[in-house]
Structure formats: structure tokens, C-alpha cells
Design brief:
The protein is mostly helical. The chain is globular, with a radius of gyration of 15 Å.
Amino acid sequence: MVTDFLLVLGAALCVLAVPNAVSAYSEARAPRFATGMVIVGGSMFVAALVLHPEGYAIADIPAALLRVMAQIRLFFEN
């Protein structure tokens, strides 16, 4: 289950870095924060792929997202 969280959070960080990078480039600034987000998110994503016992296939990612969302929902219900 920990690898599911790493996978989902890593992917989310990488996706959220895109608007930040576009904003930085449009204002002629260096995208330092976006680069950091991609490095951290990518590291989390790769760690999840390496640490998961069976590995992840592309088809497993939506199921991992749903498991993480269910765990978050259960956390806030109690």
C-alpha cells in the first residue's frame, strides 16, 4: 500500500509541475521550483516501481489511484 501512495503522489507532483514550468517560462524565469517538483515526484514514482513486489503495469495505475483515494476517504471518515 505504501508503494501505491508513492506512485500516486509522485505522479501528482510531476503533473502539477507542468503549469508551474509553463508559468516560469512565460515570465522568462528559471523553473527552479518546477524542476524540484519533477525530481522529487519522479523519484517517488521510480521508487514505487522498484519497491512494489510484482511491479506496476500501465493498467495497474488507475487501480492504485482508486486504492489511495479509498484510503484517504477512510482516514477522514473516522
